[in-house]
Design brief:
The complex is a heterodimer of chains A (about 625) and B (about 575). Chain A has about 625 residues and is α/β, with parallel strands linked by helices. Chain A has helices spanning about 5-20, 20-50, 65-110, 115-120, 125-165, 165-215, 215-220, 225-280, 285-325, 420-425, 450-455, 470-475, 485-490, 495-500, 520-535, 550-565, 600-605, 605-610; strands at about 340-345, 350, 360-365, 370-375, 380-385, 395-405, 410-415, 435-440, 440-445, 455-460, 470, 510, 535-540, 565-570, 585-590, 590-595. In chain A, strand 8 and strand 9 form a beta hairpin. Chain B is of the alpha/beta class and about 575 residues long. The chains are: A alpha/beta (about 625), B alpha/beta (about 575).
Chain lengths: ~625, ~575
């Protein structure tokens, strides 16, 4: 990933846009604090000349003016402390608020990204952006920005004071400052380069660890521990090297800038002395002494800025990865047709409604402004569909499928024949290269993706559960489902029995993708989840493969009840579960080679017949 | 806890000490600089003595060069020491995770371990670097500045001592409260990380249920939790700088007042007063650094604790001393085995299991969902330990074997098949890293995987995405079987590993097992009677108890559970 230009600017702009009032108050506080600090510094400079020297030699020194002056300064100091606390406290809210905002913004965006994005990255690498990369911003916002502002203000005020004292000496100081800046910049950019590398390696490392630890049980059964450590060490070493270089450059920066500041001091002292002692310039000894103090105050903030380079460089690296995620293109959704609830009056006219009538329609706005309501029936058609994950390698060829409302359509074929792919196309995880897919006569490209997917209940081949209770996981299918409805669905799909045996029944916590359940139990939950969603059409992709056959029959009975009147697309290896389908499609290498119901296919004595009678296998 | 961490500095100890050494030299040199500055002003400029200016200027120049080089070296070694330390910490954690048993693994979440290995280590790395640089530098600076100040005027310097006493109390209080919050923050970090992980892994589920909004809200809550705790913790830390300022400003005011009187009283020169002020600046700078380091340390303490926890976690399954290093044969015996997942505290999932399997037998296991089939076979390769009774392999208790030897001889194809990102060949070689292409192909032919692999454009070099998302379920299972076959084990366990493979392929896999690896004990868990009916004997498990253990024919006759399963599964065929 190339380092993006201007990510920091973009980031800062965003901070300001989100927290303009906060930032404004912070800036005012910082300026206020600087003024107070300058008052203090000015006071110590005038202390000797204005308050001490006049008293020297007097027999009865009067300290009252000094006391007054001190009290005045004390007020400034007190104000300074208050300003300081105020802005630091506000910065806490800004920093943490911004990190929170960035995280949620990233997450929202991530959820909108196409499946392809997730296919091409390791999980851990994506996770790293939310933790390691976001963390780099923390120091930048909370410390570097105020510090930077503070330092710049100090530099400017001191610069003005210096000008009033001696222009030539100011020239020397500024020249030295330029040298320091130049060094800082070049070392800083080196450091930045390696920080980018560090964050990338950190992501890679995160990916590696996440994958290996997720598969740790496999590592164990294969005694693969040593190799896993060996591979880990390679990434770890890579990370160490880039981190080492990045930190080295950043660390070296501080001594370099501070000592350059001291050089500037020596230079000014020597040249200043020559000028003052020769009397060639109008430079009094007192002025020179005062100037020397300013010179120090001039160089100090530069040292402070350089200390922040570390976090700035790191934040730059983190920000570029954050924006890399944010700049990914969302899943395009040009759909205009939405799903809506309708009620049908006696005359058969449909009317949009908020009521839960159990009837749905597609709301199809026409270009002329009128709205057409198409009753949702579950008529799914694929016509001459060609598809490939890459344009140059097609996996489906000229596939046509006609599923009439309420029909059960089954896909049979060898592993890798393209069965799952077909279902992925219907809910538009991927877009087809040519042909059309229609749902109730509407091209699915016209339907809003959310509504399209809502109209399809899917039980995927790979079951994924979420952290939460069993009840939460079932309710995932329909968020407003009551406990009773969830339990009802579990009963219907035969999941109820095993759930009741869990330590806390429906309130048992599931963690780590339901790691404490067997594959079959996970599938039962996934089916219950789809059942509670109560969708008009169902896609079951090997939904019962790990469920024992006794339970499967019970599930099947429940499902048959559930699927009555619904269009169902089924993929299953056990032909007994699909025998009663209205239409069975036999797929081979992305081509439908046979279609028809069980009886017709058996009569045809083709591939299905051979499969069913066990004459051939699917591969 | 800290001892655990510090012991991981290891080979970078030298760099750490060099850092401290250079920092010390740097600070000593640095402390001389204000003296030189005072010299230039007092003896040079004020005394109008050009030679003194040159003299002090030259000395200062030399000192500056010295400081610069030591500072440079200190920075360099600090980077190397801290990043090296971090690498060692990651290594120690990861290496220890590799010794974790299944029950250790179950205890931690993946996301939690990932955070510990990255975020927490980064926190500790930064704190460590701060410690070896700043925590030497700043106190040294303080002490030196104090010593110098005392040399100038002891009574006035007492001001500094009072100020520091004040600071120690205030910072201690801040640290106490902030640490409490930080300890709570990191578990929330794990939760956030888990939320992301879950969504990335299950993105297809999220999208098919159109739950993006729901997930967003869930995530927002996780992010908000972190926000709240962090704001609490950092609000406490925000008192840090202001209290520092109070101390420094107090010093300036007091010093001005008392200093003025001393100067007028004749016990202090104006030059000395100026020097005292510059020491205040010096002290201010050190305190600033110290406070920054202090924030980092406070934050990293929570991380350090979490890292130490992983490093110190002891695997509850270890190879015994004088472990057996050969497995004589593939016989498996269960002697009155009772097993539960939470070491005797949970409900037993297996009760009083008594089974004797001969070497080379093919054993089928069948039983309802959740009847503890997987738990049973997991005991054979000692992935968990029994509560009561014993499991024997080759006539010896599995607890007598070296774990690696045992697991090399007992190959398990887990129910939850995992392929790793990498080529097919790389995945296969998990079974045997030295396997040749021919051997891999042979294993794939046995597992009926060779044919579909040959159909891929890149054949055995086809890249598998994480989690094997680019191969189908059935293909994944067959690759996993092939991977296990490459181990050439004495016992091969397939835990429902052919569920996504069609019956015929399943049968031909079984057949090739029979022909090609007759001496291997094969234990096959399946939902399908057809997968097990040709086995020598079949175990019928029901709710953690052996309900029947016999041949297919006998079971059909005598075992009701088995008969029911058999009948329901064959009904379709008979009709046809």
């Amino acid at each position: 990933m190339p380092k993006k230009k201007g990510v920091l600017g973009r980031l800062l702009k965003e901070v300001f846009k989100r927290y303009p009032v906060h930032i404004l108050i912070v800036l005012v506080c910082i300026v206020g604090q600087s003024i107070c600090t300058v008052q203090g510094t000015l006071f110590t400079q005038t202390l000797i000349d204005d308050y001490i020297n006049p008293l020297l030699g007097t027999t009865n020194p009067d300290f009252t003016p000094l006391l007054h002056a001190l009290m005045r300064v004390a007020c400034f100091f007190a104000a300074g402390v208050i300003f300081s606390y105020t802005y630091q406290r506000i910065m806490v809210s800004v920093t943490q608020g911004f990190l929170r905002d960035m995280r949620t913004q990233m997450f929202k965006h991530m959820e909108s990204l196409p499946i392809r994005y997730f296919d091409s990255r390791t999980h851990g690498d994506i996770m790293s952006v939310y933790t390691n990369d976001i963390d780099t911003l923390r120091q930048l916002i909370s410390q570097s920005i105020p510090q930077f502002t503070n330092s710049v203000i100090t530099i400017v005020t001191v610069f003005i004071s210096m000008l009033t004292l001696s222009i030539p000496l100011t020239g020397i100081s500024v020249a030295m400052l330029c040298v320091i800046m130049f060094i800082s910049r070049s070392v800083g950019s080196q450091s930045g380069r390696y920080f980018v590398k560090q964050q990338i390696t950190l992501g890679k490392m995160n990916g590696f660890i996440e994958e290996m630890i997720s598969g740790q049980k496999v590592v164990k059964v294969f005694n693969h521990e040593e190799e896993a450590i060996k591979d880990f060490r390679a990434v770890n070493e890579e990370l160490r090297q880039s981190a080492n270089l990045a930190n080295k450059f950043a660390n070296v920066l501080m001594p370099v800038t501070i000592q350059s500041g001291n050089m500037s001091y020596i230079l000014c002292a020597v040249i200043g002395s020559i000028l003052a002692l020769n009397g060639s310039l109008d430079l009094s000894v007192g002025t020179l002494v005062a100037f020397m103090t300013l010179n120090r105050n001039f160089n100090n903030p530069v040292g402070q800025i350089s200390m922040q380079i570390n976090s700035i460089a790191m934040a730059q690296a983190g920000a570029s990865r954050i924006y890399d995620l944010l700049d990914q293109e969302s899943e395009p959704d040009e759909g205009i047709v939405t799903l809506c609830r309708v009620e049908v009056d006696d005359a058969g006219n449909m009317q949009e409604t908020e009521k839960r009538t159990g009837r749905w329609a597609w709301r199809h706005p026409r270009p002329d402004g009128s709205v057409e309501l198409v009753p949702m029936k579950g008529d799914i058609r694929l016509e001459n569909v060609n598809f490939g994950y890459n344009d140059d390698h097609m996996v489906l060829h000229d596939v046509s499928v006609y599923a009439n409302p309420g029909e059960k359509i089954a896909f049979v074929g060898a592993t890798g024949a393209g069965k799952t792919t077909i279902t992925n196309l219907i809910n538009r995880f991927y877009d087809i290269q040519s042909g059309t897919i229609t749902y109730d006569g509407i091209d699915i490209k016209l339907i809003k993706k959310d509504d399209l997917r809502r109209s399809l209940g899917v039980v995927l081949q790979d079951t994924h559960l979420f952290t939460g209770t069993v009840m939460d996981n079932i309710r995932y299918g329909r968020l407003d489902a009551t406990d009773e409805e969830c339990i009802e669905a579990a009963k219907l799909t035969s999941a109820d029995q095993f759930i009741r045996h869990l330590p806390d029944g429906y309130q048992t916590m599931l963690t780590g993708d339901g790691a404490n359940l067997s594959q079959g139990q996970r599938q039962l939950l996934a089916i219950a989840r789809a059942a509670v969603a109560n969708p008009p059409a169902l896609i079951l992709d090997e939904a019962t493969s790990s469920i024992d056959t006794r339970t499967e029959i019970l599930v099947q009975q429940g499902m048959d009840g559930l699927m009555r009147g619904r269009t169902t697309l089924v993929i299953a290896h056990r032909l007994s579960t699909i025998k009663n389908s209205d239409c069975i499609m036999v797929l081979d290498h992305g081509v439908i080679i046979e279609r028809g119901n069980h009886e017709t296919l058996m009569k045809q004595k083709g591939k299905y017949y051979q499969l069913y009678t066990g004459m051939i296998d699917l591969d | 806890m800290l001892k655990t961490l510090i012991s991981q500095v290891k080979e970078y100890k030298k760099d750490a000490f060099l850092t401290m050494f250079f920092v010390i030299v740097e600070v000593i040199l640095e402390i001389l600089i204000p003296l030189m500055m005072a010299g230039i002003i007092d003896e040079g400029i004020e005394a109008q003595n050009m030679n003194a200016v040159y003299k002090y200027g030259a000395i200062m120049f030399v000192i500056v060069i010295g400081t610069l080089s030591t500072g440079f070296l200190a920075g360099k070694y600090a980077a190397s020491a801290s990043t090296g330390f971090a690498a060692n910490l990651r290594d120690a954690m990861y290496t220890n995770i590799q010794t974790f048993s299944f029950s250790n693994i179950d205890k931690y979440s993946t996301a939690g371990l990932v955070t510990r290995l990255t975020t927490d280590v980064t926190n500790v790395q930064m704190a460590f670097q701060m410690i070896i640089r700043m925590c030497i530098r700043a106190p040294m600076n303080l002490v030196c500045a104090l010593v110098m100040a005392f040399m100038i005027h002891a009574e006035l310097s007492m001001i500094f001592v009072i100020a520091m006493g004040f600071l120690i109390i205030v910072l201690g209080t801040i640290m106490f409260f902030a640490t409490r919050y930080f300890n709570q923050v990191f578990p929330k970090y794990d939760a956030l990380n888990e939320s992301v992980q879950e969504n990335v892994v299950a993105i297809r589920t999220v999208k098919s249920f159109v739950r993006e909004k729901y997930e967003n809200e869930k995530f927002e809550r996780a992010a908000q939790n972190i926000y709240k705790l962090f704001v609490k913790a950092e609000s406490v830390l925000a008192f840090n700088n202001p209290s520092m300022m109070v101390a420094v400003y107090g010093c300036i005011l007091l010093l001005s007042w008392l200093g003025a009187q001393s100067v007028v009283g004749g016990t202090l020169s104006t030059g000395e007063l100026t020097t005292l002020f510059s020491y205040i600046m010096n002290i201010l700078m050190s305190l600033m650094m110290l406070s920054m380091a202090f924030v980092m340390i406070t934050m990293s303490l929570a991380s350090a604790r979490r890292i130490a926890e992983v490093i110190n976690e002891k695997s509850d399954l270890v190879s015994p001393e004088d472990a057996l290093t050969t497995v004589p044969n593939g016989a498996v015996d269960f002697n009155h085995v009772t097993f539960s997942y939470k070491h005797g505290t949970g409900e037993p999932v297996l009760r009083d299991i008594e089974l004797h399997i001969h070497s080379g037998e093919t054993i089928g296991i069948i039983g309802g969902t959740g009847s503890a089939k997987s738990s049973l076979v997991n005991l054979i390769s000692r992935l968990y330990d029994v509560d009561r009774g014993s499991v024997e392999v080759g006539g010896h208790d599995v607890r007598e074997y070296d774990l690696e030897v045992l697991r090399n001889e007992v190959a398990v194809v887990l129910q939850n098949n995992v392929l790793f990102s990498g080529t097919i060949l790389q995945n296969l070689r998990w079974g045997n890293e030295n396997a040749t292409l021919e051997e891999c192909q042979e294993a794939c032919r046995l597992a009926c995987a060779d044919e579909f692999i040959q159909n891929f454009p890149d054949k055995y070099d086809t890249y598998i995405e994480q989690g094997g998302t680019n191969v189908s379920g059935g293909q994944k299972q067959r690759l996993c079987i092939a991977r296990a076959l490459l181990k050439k084990p004495k016992i091969l366990i397939l835990d429902d590993s052919t569920s996504a493979v069609d019956t015929a392929t399943d049968a031909s896999i079984q057949q090739s097992f029979e022909e090609r690896i007759p001496d291997t004990t094969k234990i096959i868990i399946s939902q399908r009677v057809s997968s097990v009916q040709n086995a020598d004997r079949i175990i019928v498990l029901n709710d953690g108890v052996v309900d029947g253990f016999d041949t297919h024919d006998q079971l059909v006759k005598n075992n009701e559970i088995y008969r029911t399963i058999y009948e329901t599964q064959t009904k379709g065929k008979e009709e046809a």
